[in-house]
């Protein structure tokens, strides 16, 4: 442990909140305490960085990820004394986390570490004007997600839920929708969601290999129940939502959901794929007196779509090792600069709620 948890929390709390106490002191006393707090944090950072090459590399990487480039030297400033109390406190918190990552430490110490790509930043790169404007937000879950999707690299972001547990696809989508509503996704990915942005969702199901052979086939076969669970994550209480929005909405599914795609990656031949248009799908169900999205209903509707019934579901087969994701975006004219693809992945950016010490502007990085 590089710094005891209690000591660090007290020090950071004191450093970040001491401005409230300063108002009750003379300016000279306040300045003396501020200098003492800053000096203590600088000393702590220097001790951490000097403790091991791994910690030194962590400081170097942290600077390149979060600090602008000094125009005079054309590189980041490595001296901790140049940075603010908040920035130094954030690094110590970061260091206390990475020093517990045994896999990363072992990789660093057991072989020569490849040179990390250093991204040069300017203060302009921290401006919120550079945030990506998003009109179409696609959520992707499941296996084989980004195979062959190199052309989508600039539009894809991997995110992880704030939990150590691996959640079912449907539950994970519901949790992600909560993070979107709370503004956590926009804050972490530095994006701006258009007021009327729309959703798309693609579920790659690892057990889905063939279409239902009968309309009454058991839903657990080919795990169509998993796909339906993901679809039902978009369910809403129509009456309550209508009252909250003050306008009519379609029933059962999120009014912002425009596309839902299921892809079967469980077989060895061509992959079964389907696109569900929520408006047409729900209209078809209402006409036939069906509204509850139970597992058996989706089995029957997929079977009906394969036999030529117009129920809002379009089916096709895709060759294995092709990028269904890019094909779908292109087909539905979603492959624009305002489309962002969010991929649920354990290695993605963790969607922790934003804290008061998050660095959002360059002016709170430097020591005044």
Explain the overall architecture.
40% of the residues lie in helices and 16% in strands. By secondary structure, it is α/β, with parallel strands linked by helices. It is elongated and about 80 Å long.
Task: Write a brief caption for the model.
Helices cover 40% and strands 16% of the residues.
Fold blueprint:
Layout: H1 5-22, H2 27-51, H3 53-66, H4 85-98, H5 102-110, E1 132-142, E2 156-160, H6 169-181, H7 184-189, E3 191-205, H8 224-232, H9 238-245, E4 257-264, E5 271-276, H10 278-287, H11 295-306, E6 313-318, H12 324-331, E7 339-344, E8 349-350
Parallel strand pairs: 1-3, 1-7, 2-7, 2-8, 3-4
Antiparallel strand pairs: 4-5, 5-6
Helix content: 25-40%
Report the sheet-strand fraction: 15-25%
Structural class: alpha/beta
C-alpha termini separation: 30 Å
Q: Which sheet architecture does the biggest sheet show? A: 8 strands, mixed
Give the SSE string. HHHHHEEHHEHHEEHHEHEE
* Strand order, sheet with most strands: 6-5-4-3-1-7-2-8
Number of helices: 12
Number of DSSP-assigned strands:
8
Whole-number average pLDDT?
80
Give unreliable regions as ranges: 1-19, 119-129
Keywords:
8 strands, 16% strand, 368 residues, alpha/beta, 12 helices, disordered N terminus
